Amino acid sequence: MAYLWFKTFHLIGIVVWFAGLFYIVRLFVYHAEAEEKPEPAKTILKQQYEIMEKRLFNIITTPGMVVTAAMAIAILFTEPDVLKSPWLHFKLLLVAVLIGYHFYCGRIMKQLAAGTSTWKSEQFRILNEVPTVLLLAIILLAVFKQSLPVNSAVASLVALTLVIVAIYKIYAKIRQQNESKMDLATKSEV
Question: Which residues bind heme (predicted)?
């Protein structure tokens, strides 16, 4: 019975953690775009994004990571034989990468607050897709375990990455066209 409780809270932790990871980098996008705004909007937006980022990271994202990790450790104590499984070793490697990503986001948050970040909104949009690919790989490993069809899994990850890149390119082009139209409309009004 303890295993089921640990697994339940592990899954809840994962949902909370990923929600935070997906949203925090989206806030970084808006934070970076605030740099292009005229004053006083620039200062007001940056201050608001800093508050939102800190609260999200400290109150939601980090506790989600802690609950996820604590419950994973508890699960391993109830099922220690699973530590012998190669699929779990690879899953734990991906989780380690995800934890690194988490703390890297914390570092970026501090850089944005200090005004030392050199990242542009387009770069943050790409960074925002990293947890998507990691989530897919981790879930594939957790569901299929040792029977994971490696060729299909790799093909799925590559396809997902290509779709993300294609969507990003299309979005960037549409956004650039819309900005050009707005610039022309502004110039014609003057």
Answer: 10, 91
